[in-house]
Amino acid sequence: MMGGLIQSGVSTARPEPPLSVCPRLRSGALSSDRKRPWVKMTERYDCHYCKESLFGKKYVLREENPYCVKCYESLYSNTCEECKKPIGCNTRDLSYKDRHWHEDCFMCFQCKRSLVDKPFSTKDEQLLCTECYSNEYSSKCHECKKTIMPGSRKMEHKGNSWHETCFTCKRCQQPIGTKSFIPKDNQNFCVPCYEKQFAMQCVHCKKPITTGGVTYRDQPWHKDCFLCTSCKQQLSGQRFTSRDDFAYCLNCFCNLYAKKCASCTTPISGLGGSKYISFEERQWHNDCFNCKKCSVSLVGRGFLTERDDILCPECGKDI
Q1: How crowded is residue 218: how many other Cβ atoms within 10 Å of its Cβ?
Q2: Helix runs in the chain, H state only
Q3: pTM score, two decimals?
Q4: Using one digit for the tens of pLDDT, what is the confidence trace for 141-178?
Q5: How many CB atoms neighbour CB 128 within 10 A?
């Protein structure tokens, strides 16, 4: 589950360059000292680029160099994204992500209303007011069916979207936010509420089973709680058996309760359809039920006994 933030735009106004008017230039005048007159002086103040005089004209300073308005706009003014004309010195320059507009050109692409000092969004590089964007592109809340406005936080899960305040637990009605939750029957539940309402309790530890679990004799167990009564090894995923309602792995069950083969003395489990031979309170594995002398298998054949040994009729005829 992930929350998302719909991106919206904020324009910034580029400050207008300060315009100045070049004052009337002063010239020299005769001194009262008739012996030495003042030399007539005229100070020039020209455009840094075209070198024309700025006398009596508006000009712009850039890096302490004066420019006439025409040169400044041709050299440094930005081009409006809408009308493709330069943005002059006397006009506000509105910028967004290195793009620029005249103040009058900064408007919604669909409804043409001004976006100056208002929130907006972009789609395919087009400017849209929040209302037009919402009507065309915004997600609808799965709970209240209303539009999720640009700039607001939304929660998403399996293709559905919610307002953050609408994404709540069905049982306790508290916002889920970015916490873990469990969906059930198209409804969302926080983990504590789900466990209280739906989760089975382990017959061993009495705690809720939220994932996985094992059923034995129609009772639920955590995998970590379903263990061999003797060795405490986990029984999930392996063969086991029981005695007196207690579960055992095969090794423990055989060592504790299985009869021993009269020939090899290892346990005879009798599990999984394995066959064994029983005679006079003694048992043999099928593979161990052989003549003591010639080792021929006696399964399904007649045999004789001599003390603790079993013999085929051929070997036993001299007894």
Answers
A1: 6
A2: 69-76, 130-136, 191-197, 250-257, 313-316
A3: 0.37
A4: 988 988 887 677 888 888 888 999 999 999 999 999 88
A5: 24
